[in-house]
Amino acid sequence: MLNRREVLQLLPGAVLAPLLMQSAPAEGQDAAQPIDAWSIDRRVFVLDRSTESIQRYFIIGDIVELSAATFPSLFRDNGQYLSKTFELNIDARHAIFNMPLRMADGRLRIIAQRLEFGFDGLAGFVSPPSNGQLISISAEVIDFTRARSLPFAFRTGVEGRSINIRCLSATGLTPGAAPTNEFAHFIAQMTLGDAGGVRPDISFGDAAVSAYETSLANAKWPEASTLKLQRFLSNAPYSESNRAFVRGKVGELLTALRGTQSPLVSAAVQRTSDAIANQSDLLGLRENDTPMSSLSQSIERTDRLVKTLFDEGLLSTWDSIAITSANPASIDTVRFQDVAGARDAAARQLDELAAEGAKISVRLQTLEGLIGQTDKELENQKTFLAQQEFAIQQKGPNDNVAKGVGAIAAVGSVVFPAAAPFLMVASGMVSAAMEMSNNDGDFVSHITNIADIVKNHSELMKVSLQLRKDWDSVTGDFGLARRSVTDKRSLTPDEKKRVEQWKASASSLGNQVKAIAAILKSSPPSAELKDETATANSDPEIRTIILQRNDCVREQSDLLNRQISLAQELQVESARILELDAILAEMQQLALVNDDDRARYRMLADWARRSLIESIAKEAILLNRSLRYAGAPASDMPHELLSYAEGAAGMTASRFFIDSGETETELQQAAKKREAIYRTLLLDARGLRDSLIEKKRWNIPSPITVSARRKDNPGTPAHQARMEGFVRDLNRIIADAIREGKSQPVPIPFNPGDIQHTTNAFLLGINIARLELAETRAPDGEFILYIGHPRFGKLVRNGGEEFFTDFVRDRRNNALNSAYWPLRLPNDVEPDWQKRILFAQELAKIQDTMLPLLTSYEVHVEVANRDEWSTVPQIERIDLEFISVGGK
Q1: Phi-psi region of 205 (alpha: psi -120 to 50; beta: other; left: phi over 0)
Q2: 258 contacts 214 by C-beta, under 8 angstroms
Q3: Given 151, 308, 704, 767, which residue has the most CB atoms within 10 angstroms?
Q4: Across the strands, what pairs with 765?
Q5: Kind plus residue range of the DSSP H or E element containing 499
Q6: How far apart are CA 2 and CA 57, in angstroms?
């Protein structure tokens, strides 16, 4: 007799390895050929539900191939058969029946989207019924192309033998066999004849739709297919071709389910779709996400989880539940309350996001209207451009505000919405800022005209409007989305349509972010206006309009970036709530189902165990990325052991049903491997943390200087234009700060050419070594240059470049803000950087903040006391030193 066991691995939304692996791709499967890998991966879930009187087995999977090679325990040679009362249930998206299944008394049930008969596929009874015989097939498509002439080795019309076949379409039929009566005749020809008793119950085409959809609603294969989708996404989550493949498979799965998917499948599919849209893995991590700060906190967080899961035995407790859950029981009240509490907390968080997003949408709409109004006024008064030419002609080396400097600063430049770091990160276009800083042209002194300004605003408004519509749809119809998970049958046709629109809007949010980032990437942060008239006169009203427009745009930039942050957080929380709703709905059905399903739902509701494994896996991945980022060897972390909740993928194809003792051993071995990986990782991370403050780990720090002059810069014409443009913009924002207290940021033309200084280089500090002003006297007061690092950048290693983005855990409360170095001028000018930046002192801080040297720096200016200024200082030359330190 086959060994008994009672283990089920279908957990909601998790990425699991099944107990039986018939044929699976190796870890790191080439994502360039996902179609082949999809067909090769035929992992299945096997359930033994035998009793003393009957052997009952369930085989569930995306692709289930019933053959002598994959299921040798079921194979019988000619003259042999399965002697005891036997029941086999095949539940698959694609079932391949390619072995003889000879039974004495038995029942064969097959639920599949596609059922394919191979030449060796045969179902037969070797004796008259004594305890009931059954062949039940429910499939959307049955393929008889390769079938033998008599795949059904029994006679129909025998008392006690039931034949039920539901099929919407078939291939390999004799010509003209399409209607139900002809299909029934075709099936009859594939049997050993008819005894004249009860006729087989066969329906085909439209007549079979209702019965097929009923069986599909109760099928388990959608859960296995969803897990396979998540497994494939996890194998190469950052491969565009793999994401596109999984996206296509999601669409195919939803089409195949015909709207009958379970709440758990709906939630898991939504989670997968969100990961694809956000260009992340299923844990929410993007490819370049790496903690650049608080290494000690990351170590402590991982250490706490290791102690909780392994030292305190929490994971082994849930493992034992996975083994012993065969005993039907009522709902675990404590576990139900834990899940409900997590769901309610996430719901409150979502309400806060929706409320803040609504306020932002209203204000953005107002701002866009104001900006559009000023642009129309500018179009009607193009003569103001002549003022710029007049002001530039009158400009002298000692100009002050009264002589026209203020007019140039106000009228001569128009601010555009800024692509702040978080917006770049959220859109997956972080490298855009890096590309802009590496342009050979004069990227800080763009020239534009009124038509360009209006066109830019119009394009941005169009995309921003669509983003707000998607936001309103996602937040407004989220209640319906939750009902579609918990009580789908109560939805009206109109509500079902709105749920589908909700899904589309949720996916569209990410696309709108990319569209906004693309527009901002092609637009300068500010632009000088081109004179469009031959004679232009000074116009105070135009100056006022420009200042008002710039104020609106600055606020618009801040709100736009905040809205992008909220949109991403909304997607994460929405998927989480839907998943928890689905689990609670399944748990509440425990008292309403029979004993067999009760055990299954108990395991399906095991959210706590999956959550524990995912939480420590995420911390371990981040900590491992920190090791790689800092230059230490990364630990070997097998993908399946980290994120697959069971970790039993090592079982061979020759093993069929495994008893509970063997399963328990597998789980214990997986837990030991995880624990060893995590403890080794912690040991390596602690060693790294201690080594960071040792001087011998680092090369000698050296400055990389950006020297910019108002004119007469050395170098190529392109380099001269960049440096002159930077000084011109710097003088402009100094004037802005004196007038308004704070300026918009402008990019710093940082592009080091000495590769020796930038290999594996981090930023130790920033110094101003030289400052020359046009005025001979000291400036009226002090102004502060805030030099910002956007917390992303690249490291040059092993002849190539690696890009990193600082990982932020809570984007709502801790947006991806730049790291700033405030330098008070003229007091903080220091020709010898080593007097300002002490190597040992900075090394003590590098454990908490270690930023890559190569990035897109920016600078803005603040003035504490504007009243003390009577003259705007004009910078003639400034030397910025970026102190580089490379790891050995």
Answers
A1: left
A2: no
A3: 767
A4: 883
A5: helix 493-521
A6: 10
Q: How far apart are alpha carbons 683 and 749 in whole angstroms?
A: 41
Both structure tokens of 595: 């004993």
Is the peptide bond between 421 and the residue preceding it cis, with omega within 30 degrees of 0? no
CA atoms within 13 A on the CB side of 766: 22
* Core vs surface per residue 704-718: b (16+ CB within 10 A) or e: bebebbbeebeeeee
Q: How far is CA 853 from CA 511, 594, 761, 794, 796, in A?
A: 31, 63, 6, 8, 10
pLDDT in tens, 505-553: 777 776 777 777 777 766 766 666 665 543 333 456 666 777 777 778 7
pLDDT of 657 reads: 36
SS3 label, residue 880: strand
| Residue 378, Ramachandran bin (φ over 0: left; ψ between -120 and 50: alpha; else beta) | alpha
The H-assigned helical ranges of 693-754 are 717-740
Q: Which residue has the higher pLDDT, 536 or 690?
A: 690
* Residue indicated by tokens 């409900």: 340
* Burial per residue of 563-581, b for 16 or more beta-carbon CB atoms within 10 angstroms, e otherwise: bbbbbbbbbbbbbbbbbbb
Cα separation, 74 vs 65, in Å, equals: 12
86 closest CA partner among 116, 130, 123, 56: 56
One-letter amino acid identity for 251?
A: G
| Structure confidence by residue, pLDDT tens digits, 13-69 | 222 223 333 333 333 444 446 677 888 888 887 877 777 788 888 888 899 999 988
Q: How many other CB atoms are there within 10 angstroms of residue 45's CB atom?
A: 23
pLDDT, greater one: 559 or 248: 248
Count of alpha carbons within 13 Å of 565, Cβ hemisphere only? 22
Length reported for the chain: 888
- Give the bridge partners for 298, in sequence order: none
According to DSSP, residue 180 is labeled H
DSSP state of 86: E
Could you give the CA distance from residue 396 to residue 555 in angstroms, rounded to a whole number?
33
Question: How many helices (H) and strands (E) would you count in the chain?
Answer: 25, 24
Query: What are the tokens at 121?
Result: 């596929």
- Confidence at residue 33, expressed as pLDDT on a 0 to 100 scale: 64
